[in-house]
Amino acid sequence: MTRDFIDINDFTILVEEAFSEGVTIDACRFDEPVIAVAFYGSGNVDLSVNYKNKEKQFQQTKGLALSFYADDNVEFVHTVSPEKPLRCLLIATSIRNLDRLPNDEGEIFSSLLNELVNPSDHYVEGPKFLMTPEMDHIVDSVFNMKYVGKTKMMFFRSQMTTLLSHFFGQLASGQTEKINATEREKLFLAKDILVNNLDNPPTLSELSVQIGLNTYNLKKNFKELFGTPVFKYLQNERLKTAHELISSENATVQEAAWQVGYDSLGSFSNAFEKKYGYRPSQIK
């Protein structure tokens, strides 16, 4: 487990990453009441939020943007396993700092996260939704960042501002509530089927039958909910998984390509370079 705290203005940035050969449980809590947004990268790590004999469970965390208020009575527990690595980027500020945030940012929190600014319990969950491709790319870039010192701070400051802008932009535009709960469950199931079958995914027609949603609504609402077409999402997940396999030295470039469903090493390398800007063989 690596845990990096970075203070920028009146925000605290927490970057957590964990890969484990066995099941590992890690718990943490905040020293004072905070409003925070957690952005989860790869892994679908299990998250349990515990406070005053209450418990909130999350199993589908991959790609999740989750806003919340929490005081020092709240414990956050991540269960990490080989199949469920942790990559979490958290941006937090204390309520007492809201009036001091630059550019009237405190007003944005008050208007769009009012239930968190005026909490009714030790833990209050605010809006949550799956990140857009732009947000996902920013989170990805943080965990693949190589800068140090002042350059690192400059990078974090720009990326955190952009990430929060995307988050509040989604809330302000109402893009998170267009699909009913039943259909959202089916689309999440479709996403899970793709993620669990990277090497041999179903066709669009097969996927449609498996989740009980016609092909038109599958294509239209999958893009609406996850911000990208079905098989573009599949390609992104293949490349992200391959990147993790290679960078963690759990697979060679050729092995990673096969494990995520690429028969051609050339096609894999070209797609990888288009996404990341460098060849898979250049990963250090």
Describe this structure in words.
There is one protein chain. The chain is of the alpha+beta class. It folds into two domains: 2-173, Sandwich (Jelly Rolls); 181-282, Arc Repressor Mutant, subunit A (Orthogonal Bundle). 42% of the residues lie in helices and 24% in strands. The chain contains ten helices and ten strands. The protein has helices at residues 105-112, 114-117, 133-143, 149-173, 181-195, 204-211, 215-226, 230-247, 253-259, 265-276, and strands at 2-8, 11-18, 24-28, 34-40, 46-51, 54-58, 64-70, 75-80, 86-94, 123-130. A hairpin with a 2-residue loop joins β5 and β6 (54-58). α3 (133-143) runs antiparallel to α4.
Any idea what the radius of gyration is? 19 Å
Outline:
globular
From the helix content, strand content and strand pairing, which structural class follows?
A: alpha+beta
* Largest sheet report: 6 strands, antiparallel
- How are strands sequenced across the largest beta sheet? 1-2-9-4-7-10
Number of helices: 10
Give the CATH H-level superfamily of the largest domain: Jelly Rolls
What is the mean pLDDT? 88
CATH topology (fold) name of the largest domain: Jelly Rolls
Number of domains: 2
CATH class of the largest domain: Mainly Beta
Overall CATH architecture of the largest domain: Sandwich
Helix content: 40-55%
Termini distance? Answer: 20 Å
Instruction: Outline the low-pLDDT stretches.
Output: none
Q: Tell me the number of strands.
A: 10
H and E order: EEEEEEEEEHHEHHHHHHHH
Strand content: 15-25%
